[in-house]
Each structure stands twice: as structure tokens, then as C-alpha cells.
Amino acid sequence: MKINTAAVIGAGTMGAAIAAQLANAGIPTLLLDIVLPDQKDRNFLARAGLERALKSRPAAFMDADNARLITVGNLEDDFEKLAGADWIVEAIIEKLDAKRDLWARVEQVAKPGAIISSNSSGIPMHLQIVGRSEEFQRRFVGAHFFNPPRYLHLMEVIPTPKTAPEVVEAFSAFGDVHLGKGIVVANDVPGFVANRIGVYGMIRTMHHMARSGLTPDVVDVLTGPAMGRPKSASFRTADLSGLDIIYHVGHDLDRATGGDEDFTLPEFLVKLVEEKKWLGDKTGSGFYKKTKENGKTVILTLNLNTYEYENKGKVRLASLEPIRNLPLNDRLKALYALSGPEGDFLRGVMHDGFWYSAKMAGVVSERITDIDNALKWGFGWEQGPFETMDVLGVQNVIAALEAEGRELPPLLSAMKHSGRSTFYHDGTVPDPQGGVTHYEAPFLILKDLKKDATKIVRSSQGASLLDVGDGVLLLEFHSKMNALGEDALRMVSVAHQTVQELGFAGLVVGNQGENFSAGANLALLLMNAQDGEFDEIDLAVRQFQKAITSLRFSPHPTVVAPFHLTLGGGCEMALHADHVQASAETYMGLVEVGVGLIPGGGGTKEMLLRFTDALLPGQPLMPALQRAFELIGTAKTSTSAQEARRLGFLRDSDEISMNRDRLIEDAKRKVLELAPGYVQPVMREDIRVMGEQGIAAIKAALYGMVEGGQISEYDREIGLQVARVLSGGALVNRNARVSEQYLLDLEREAFLTLSGKRKTQERIAHTLKTGKPLRN
């Protein structure tokens, strides 16, 4: 059941975005929609959907070139082309009759063995295929993506009673490995898993807000990052999703569940949708409204008593200040114990979520892990409801629910009588039928690995060495933003020694934090620069270069596994690996010029080396010099691993993992591939440089940019330092050849020179304070 080609029927926002993600995975995709009678272009809707996906922000395509894999068409002229698709996915209007009519047509042309699926979020899958043949029903399965499909990890796979088990297995594996999705197998019930529980929680949050007397902005402070949930929290999420969507989904679930699960909508939501027509971001007004005051964007909050918008400024809650920076588990315990209306509100929201999640166990899915994962992957929670109950103490939660007079769902009742204190324990979880099942993640989870002390080979404040099995050692950073300080760099050296002394096959550099690494420790650099400790900075840069270059010039293979922010020194680590196994969502860049510096850990040298090596025999050096200068001088950052490859941060031989959860395992596999017969590389001595001629060319270009107002005088000064390194210094011979070490020395000199400049120190201080660059 290999899926090499696909077709998407319906080119609306969701259908076009699904087609884009298929193209991101390298799958040629046919995108079809209806013919509009008043349009000369019979493919107008499909073409418009593709163009919308190309313009969407955040970007639907990992690289705009992927759009060439999508062929547009219409459901009249091109319907027969569906016969060439291994997978046909429907994303049309949410009307049962329309879907049934479509499937009747599809059955006539779909090739034997093709997987057929619906992206419906509300219409049960089994109802869509009434009247279809047994063979068609065997290969029909729900595939519910979350919007936007590129970024939200969850895909719910919803088999019907007629779906063949091998179809579910093969399709789930495809979604996991090739599309990069977190797969949850859902039962074919209204709302499936994530929306059933997530929308319930959203509606109950609104009711608890009204009961507590709190306001939307206060609730969003309580239910956002403080609880381990996205910054959009509750009411900002509602505005983003569309209040009409919540309104309709709530009504549908209320009808579908017979009204016994209390999806009753709060009066203020009904008024906003039915009377005010304020639907959130799509209409410009919802629980919040953006306006301009003195040229600045201001966010106003809706007063639900007067239905007027108010500028309340940034909300700060005194009760949260002492716990804001605590680890998540400690934060959750503190929130659960808060006093006053804020505490009452939070306990009400949490209790509703715990009770309803337990009630849905066995209804929406057969595994409680699916419920936790659906809410983490679909709604961006750091922890699911059962994981949170483990933190608070399951028996404590049960006692609190009973004290409120609630009837315990069967799962919680069984937990009460078993005396079991946590849902997750020694690789087992309770199942909804009252038994216990073994649970093992389908991929390596480092926090689980570290529960076995024998797997921790060495640990320090900023980094750890872990035995990830099969003779592979992992170097994991765990400082704030995984900044590369002295401690982390020292551990690089220790990692290499450990590989050799203990006989490991090789090294993986990676972690499972929020970002791979945001670069070097700027705060320490600024402190040394302001104190005039330039000998310290010189030593630090030497150590930094030694650690970075050791990733390539060691007697064993080293694979770097970057993901999300991979900036500055983090990028330089990847540039010097024997192999890079990158997450599809890797945002990679040499961004040092933004803080008044140049890449000093070999990044400047490496980009020059790569681009000169890419030249054809006899081709002049200037294109390589220009390409490297533009990349470094503009601090260009990739928006995906695919773009990083096009920019030159990744080589053609480097690989991309669509599913970040599999990144460490994929990197480990690559180490084991490289280890047999591995030969230690040596530093190059033959890098061609342009010398004075290259410096002069870039100097002239920089002068023109200053005169044109594109850059500042200090930007030019930084640019000249970059040019000097890329040109190999002031050499007279335009075709001189230099060594990697020579270029590293030039990098270090330029870095030291710039770190002593007042304007560079101002840039660093501003970035540390605001997170934004300063143009001075």
C-alpha cells in the first residue's frame, strides 16, 4: 500500500493546505474543485486554492518550489485522472449528501488498492460510505488534519467498522513517517478525539469565566503558557478559530450527543455570533479587537457586560508572579492550589476537563494515550489531561471530583478502587475496560530514557551524555534556549573522549527541547566585552572553534540533528557535522551580523568552502564570494529544512526527517551507517580566495548600499569584516589558496575586533533586552 501519488478533492483553505503538505513530502498531487459557471478558467477554484496556499502566512509550503508537484484541475474535465492516485482525500463542503454523491463517482474511477479518505471534522465516516461496495469500504478511512496541516502535528485516523486493519496500519505509518504527523486512531464518533474534548473544554471555560466574574484577558493569562498551553490560550484561540466555528461545532456536538454532555453555549457567545456578527479575526472583532493608537497597534478587550471594547493594557496577575518561572509540574500544582476567584476558576476548568476526558475514554478512542496525544498535538498543550492528573495526584483529583458531587466515570472509579496513584506507571496504562495495557512510545523519548540512570553517561548543568542504545552516544544540550556556553562546549570534548574510551560507534548531537540551539551565550560575551576582557573572549572563541570543528575532525562519525531554531553557533555545529539529520521544521541561519558580529565558529569559512566547491571548473570565484556574503550579511534564516538545503546550510547528502519525533532515531541510524570503515577527515589546505580583489568588490557594493540608505555606516563596517574573511584577507594573488585554519584565524580576529566596538555592544544589549535587532 505505497502512496506515491495523491489527489485532493476540494481546493478550499483546508484542501489546498493538505495538498501543500503532500507536496512538501515529495508526493505529486492532483488538486480538483468544481467548475464555476461564470468563469472562463474551468480550473479557477483549484488554481485560486493553490495561489492562496502559496501566499499563506505562515507558509503552507516548506519551499515554494514544492508547488510544482501540484497539478490543478476540475471535477468535470479531470475526474478520470483520479484513477492515477494511490490516495484520494476529500475536503469538500460539510454536507453528507454531497460527500455520498462524490464517493459514488469516485468508486467508478479509483484504482484497485487506492486508499480513500475524508477530512471531515464532524460527519461520521461510516455514514458517508452507505451504499458503497465492500471493497471500497475496506479501503476507506477518515484522515482528519488540523489547520494548518504543515504545523499542527495531529492527524486523526478514523476507521469505520468495515475498514481493513491493514489499511489502518499502512496509512497510519505513511502519515507518521512521510507526512510527519502524530497519529491518533479515533473511534468514528461525533467530534472524534481532539475536537470532542477540546471544544467541550473551551465551552466549559467560557461558562466558568462567567460564573467567576473574570474577564477574557484575565482568563487568557491563566490558561495560556502558565498552564503549559499556547500563548493564544482560550479566547484568543476562539478568535483565531472563528466564533462561528465554535458556535456550529458546539451545536452539532450538543445534538449528536443527545444533550447529556452539556455542550450548551454561553449566552454571550450566542449573542456575538447571532446578533453582533462578531466572529473573531475574520470579521476584525471578537473577544478582542485590534486598533491603532498613535501609530501603534493596540489590542482592545471586549467587556461582556457592556459589549464595548476597552484598552486594558497588559494584564498582570499578582498570584502568578511567584510561580511564573517554575517548571511546568510545579506550576500546575501551584495553579491548582490558588485561592480566590482565580483558583476557583482554574479548578473548575481542570475538573471539567479531567472528568470529561475520563468519561470519553473508550468512547472517542480505545487508549487514554490517544486522548493525551490528541490534545498535545492538535491544541498545542504540553501535557494531556491524564498526564496532568498524574502530576496533581490521581487520588487527590478523584476525591475533589467526588466532593463536588460528581459521579465518577468508570475509568476513574476503577482507579479509585485499584488504589493506583498514576495513570502512567512502569510502561503501563489502565484501559477503559478496567484492565491494564502496556504502553511503549513508537519513537525514542529522551525524558523516558533518562528515568534509567544507567543511560546517563555524564551530566552537567548545560549538557548531558546519554547512551541511546546500539552503541551510539547522544550529546544533549539543556540550557535556556540551548545557548552554547562554556559548559556545553566543554561537554563536546568530553563526548568525543567518551566515544573513544567506551567504544561507542559514534555521536549524535541533538535534543528534544523547544529548539536545537539559539547560538552562543551573548550575555557572557557582552559582560566580558564591557569589562575589556578581550583575552577571555579570544580564549572563548578559540575554544568555540575547536569544539565546533571537532564535530567533523574526530575519529568517529558525528551526526547533528537540528530542529526549530538552529541559529549562530547552533547552525555552525550543523555545518561541521559529518552528516545532518534535520527536522523538516528547521529554521537555520548565521545571524551574528544582527548583533554586530560575524560567524566566529567556522560558519564564515564553511559557507565560502561550500560555495567555492560548487563552482564549475574554470568558473570565477566571485559568484561564490557573493553568495556567501549575501547569506551572512543579510542574516538569512531558512523557513524550513528544505529551504536550508537550497540556501546551502544543508548539503544534498544531508537528510530530512518529516516527523520530528523520529529525529533522534533517524540520526542514530545514520551514525550506524557511517561507522563501519569511517575514516577521520583532515582540514583542507586548498580553499581558493580572491584576496584584495574580493574585498574591493564588496567594499564598492557596500558603499552603494550606504548611499542608497539600505544599510547604516556601522552595517558597512561589519560587512567589511565579513568580506575580509571571505576574501582570505588582503592577499595580492587573486587565486591564492589558504587553509581552513587560516580562515578560522581571520574569523577570530574579526570577531574580537567587532566585540570591542561600542555599537556592537549596544546591539547585543538591545537584543538581550528586547529579543529584536538594533540598527545603529
Description:
By secondary structure, the chain is an alpha/beta fold. It folds into four domains: 6-185, NAD(P)-binding Rossmann-like Domain (Rossmann fold), CATH 3.40.50; 194-438, N-(1-d-carboxylethyl)-l-norvaline Dehydrogenase, domain 2, CATH 1.10.1040.50; 447-591 and 637-674, Alpha-Beta Complex (2-enoyl-CoA Hydratase, Chain A, domain 1), CATH 3.90.226.10; 597-636 and 682-776, no CATH class. It contains 30 helices and 24 strands. Strands 3-2-1-4-5-6-7-8 form an eight-stranded mixed sheet. Strands 14-15-16-17-18-20-22 form a seven-stranded mixed sheet, with helices on both faces. Helix 1 (13-24) links the parallel strand 1 and strand 2 (29-33). Helix 1 packs across helix 2 (44-55), helix 21 packs antiparallel against helix 29 and helix 27 packs antiparallel against helix 28. The protein is globular. The mean pLDDT is 95.
Ordered list of secondary-structure elements with their pairings:
Blueprint: E1 6-9, H1 13-24, E2 29-33, H2 44-55, E3 70-74, E4 87-90, H3 96-109, E5 115-118, H4 125-128, H5 134-138, E6 140-145, E7 154-159, H6 165-177, E8 182-185, H7 194-212, H8 216-222, H9 235-241, H10 243-256, H11 267-276, E9 288-293, E10 296-303, E11 308-310, H12 328-336, H13 340-360, H14 368-379, H15 385-392, H16 394-403, H17 410-418, E12 428-430, E13 436-438, H18 446-449, E14 456-459, E15 463-467, E16 472-477, H19 486-502, E17 506-509, H20 522-530, H21 534-549, E18 558-560, E19 564-567, H22 569-575, E20 579-583, E21 586-589, H23 603-613, H24 622-633, H25 641-647, E22 655-657, H26 663-674, E23 687-689, H27 692-707, H28 713-726, E24 736-738, H29 740-755, H30 758-770
